[in-house]
Design goal:
This is MALR1 protein. InterPro entries: ConA-like_dom_sf, MAM_dom, MAM_domain-containing. With 160 residues, the chain is mainly β. The protein contains no helices and ten strands. It has one domain: Jelly Rolls. Helices cover 0% and strands 42% of the residues. The protein is globular.
Length: 160
């Protein structure tokens, strides 16, 4: 619905992911970029933008961090819905939760390559008694193949 904050990456503005275009390893591109799959966004549009892992990543993982969210309550859980593409077995997409009082990131969801070469959608629900950030991390075990981890249309509910 319209009450959700949506990051569709069509522009360089995204309130909830303030620095997504500065994160090393993640690049904003479309299916016409000549960088391999995916060749369109999750709607099948080859000129629409999404984020994908760069094939020239310097390290084995790249994190994409949200702004700080307030604690959730029973009426307003934080729901995050996103489309993702992970095609190589040596690629993983993880979603983690970091409470501001802790240094560690707790992994709350992850998927590894399924060789299906298609966009999938997932919704995760977060409850936290303190302020927190959500981290999307792409992990590459080998640099052999063309990158094949992508994220599109991340929406955040009012509880975030």
């Amino acid at each position: 619905g319209s009450s959700w904050n949506n990051c569709d990456f069509e522009t360089n503005l995204c309130k909830v992911l303030p620095e997504f275009n500065l994160q090393p390893g993640w690049i904003r591109r479309n299916g016409r970029s000549g960088m391999g799959p995916p060749y369109s966004d999750h709607n099948g549009n080859d000129s629409a933008y999404f984020l994908s892992l760069s094939s020239e990543m310097q390290s084995s993982s790249a994190a994409l961090r949200t702004s700080v969210f307030l604690p959730t309550d029973e009426e307003h859980l934080c729901q995050i819905r996103f489309h993702y593409w992970v095609s190589e077995m040596s690629r993983t997409l993880m979603v983690g939760l970091q409470k501001l009082s802790e240094d560690t990131i707790t992994n709350i969801w992850q998927v590894s390559g399924e060789q299906r070469n298609q966009w999938n959608v997932n919704t995760i629900t977060i409850s936290s008694t303190e302020k927190f950030q959500v981290i999307f991390s792409g992990v590459v075990e080998t640099q052999r193949q063309r990158e094949s981890v992508a994220i599109d249309d991340i929406t955040f509910s009012e509880g975030c």
